[in-house]
């Protein structure tokens, strides 16, 4: 089994069992201490869905390996961390790009406390006066599809700026997410599949499998897909979006980092703060995974670190009309 061979090369990783197709899933999840389940959805998506549901019933952490467009609801919901796998694992090793990405994902899933939480994460010391933003940029991953509607609905009609979003998600599902956000938040939301002008009040979502970057053409801000290499083992990734925002509008931008695994967004937020912009992060208690927001919080880049229910009011305070 190629996966077992790859996993054997990860320090501290022990494979305690293997659930074969057709075997009783519930029996396979019993007996012994199971820290997490790695599900390969490449060969049998239906069986993989059943295994996801069984693992979640037992509060067992799950990572799904998915081939493009072969796995739907659990991954599309954003509740399940995923990693796109090659069509063949025969030549993959623990040291190959896929193996390195898999190891990082598993470390984030099974040892989420790699960033030691503090009672009060530090916030940025610089920039006590932030310029009113011209653009709002949001980055999210695991748990993002549940957090984004709450945030966008909370600021609807209260801020006039456009919003650009990078959500880690396979290509097959970002269009569905854009449609859902449009219906739920009553803000026009589009998946960015080509260069398009950025209009006030609209929402622009990076297409799965492609980065999204922002640039200025004359007086007009535009966003467009970018097929550059993966960053933080992701495409789309938050960092290239935020770097491009800093280049396009300088300090007149507000970044919001929501729940997600890893530290994508950290370097982009640093670039934005260096340019004079501001960052808001979701707190640990309300994050599904406090990786991305925790990274920027502990780096001292944040204007504020608040629960999900307060993210919208923080955005309004920074970007809304003057009182």
Helix and strand topology:
Blueprint: H1 2-8, H2 25-28, E1 36-40, H3 45-57, E2 61-66, H4 73-76, E3 82-84, H5 97-110, E4 135-140, H6 144-155, E5 162-167, H7 171-185, E6 189-192, E7 196-197, E8 203-206, E9 211-217, E10 220-226, H8 238-249, E11 253-257, H9 266-274, E12 278-282, H10 292-298, E13 304-306, H11 308-319
Parallel strand pairs: 1-2, 2-3, 4-5, 4-11, 5-8, 6-8, 11-12, 12-13
Antiparallel strand pairs: 7-10, 9-10
Helix pairs in contact: 6-7, 6-11, 8-9
What are the salient characteristics of this protein?
Rossmann fold, elongated, three-stranded parallel β-sheet, seven-stranded parallel β-sheet, alpha/beta, 323 residues, 2 domains
**Mean pLDDT, as a whole number?**
84
- Radius of gyration, rounded? 20 Å
Low-confidence stretches: 69-74, 112-121, 124-128
Strand order of the largest sheet: 6-8-5-4-11-12-13
Examine the secondary-structure arrangement and name the CATH architecture of the largest domain: 3-Layer(aba) Sandwich
Q: Strand fraction band?
A: 15-25%
CATH fold-type name of the largest domain: Rossmann fold
- Largest sheet report: 7 strands, parallel
Overall 3D shape:
elongated
Order of helices and strands: HHEHEHEHEHEHEEEEEHEHEHEH
The end-to-end distance, rounded to whole angstroms, is 63 Å
Integer count of domains: 2
- By secondary-structure content and strand pairing, the structural class works out as alpha/beta
> Any idea of the CATH class of the largest domain?
Alpha Beta
CATH superfamily of the largest domain: Methylesterase CheB, C-terminal domain
Estimate percent helicity: 25-40%
* Continuous helix count: 11
The tally of beta strands, per DSSP, is 13
């Amino acid at each position: 089994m190629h996966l077992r061979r790859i996993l054997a090369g990860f320090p501290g990783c022990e494979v305690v069992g293997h659930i074969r197709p057709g075997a009783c899933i519930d029996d396979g999840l019993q007996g012994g201490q199971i820290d997490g389940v790695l599900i390969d959805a490449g060969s049998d998506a239906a069986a993989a869905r059943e295994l996801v549901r069984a693992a979640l019933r037992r509060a067992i952490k799950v990572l799904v390996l998915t081939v493009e467009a072969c796995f739907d609801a659990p991954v599309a919901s954003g509740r399940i961390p995923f990693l796109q796998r090659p069509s063949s694992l025969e030549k993959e090793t623990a040291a190959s790009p896929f193996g390195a990405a898999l190891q990082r994902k598993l470390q984030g899933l099974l040892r989420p406390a790699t960033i030691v939480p503090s009672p009060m994460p530090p916030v940025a010391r610089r920039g006590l006066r932030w310029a009113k933003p011209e653009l709002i940029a949001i980055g999210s991953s695991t748990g993002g599809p549940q957090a984004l509607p709450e945030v966008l609905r909370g600021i609807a009609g209260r801020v006039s700026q456009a919003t650009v979003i990078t959500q880690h998600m396979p290509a097959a599902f970002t269009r569905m997410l854009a449609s859902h956000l449009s219906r739920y938040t009553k803000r026009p939301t589009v998946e960015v599949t080509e260069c398009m002008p950025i209009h006030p009040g609209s929402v622009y979502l990076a297409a799965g499998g492609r980065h999204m970057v922002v640039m200025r053409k004359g007086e007009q801000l535009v966003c467009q897909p970018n097929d550059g290499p993966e960053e933080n083992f992701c495409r789309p990734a938050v960092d290239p979006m935020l770097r491009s925002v800093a280049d396009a509008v300088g300090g007149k931008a507000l970044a919001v980092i929501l729940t997600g695994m890893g530290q994508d967004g950290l370097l982009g937020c640093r670039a934005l703060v260096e340019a004079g912009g501001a960052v808001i992060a979701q707190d640990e208690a309300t994050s599904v995974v406090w990786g991305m927001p925790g990274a920027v919080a502990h780096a001292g880049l944040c204007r504020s670190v608040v629960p999900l229910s307060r993210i919208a009011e923080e955005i309004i305070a920074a970007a809304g009309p003057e009182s």
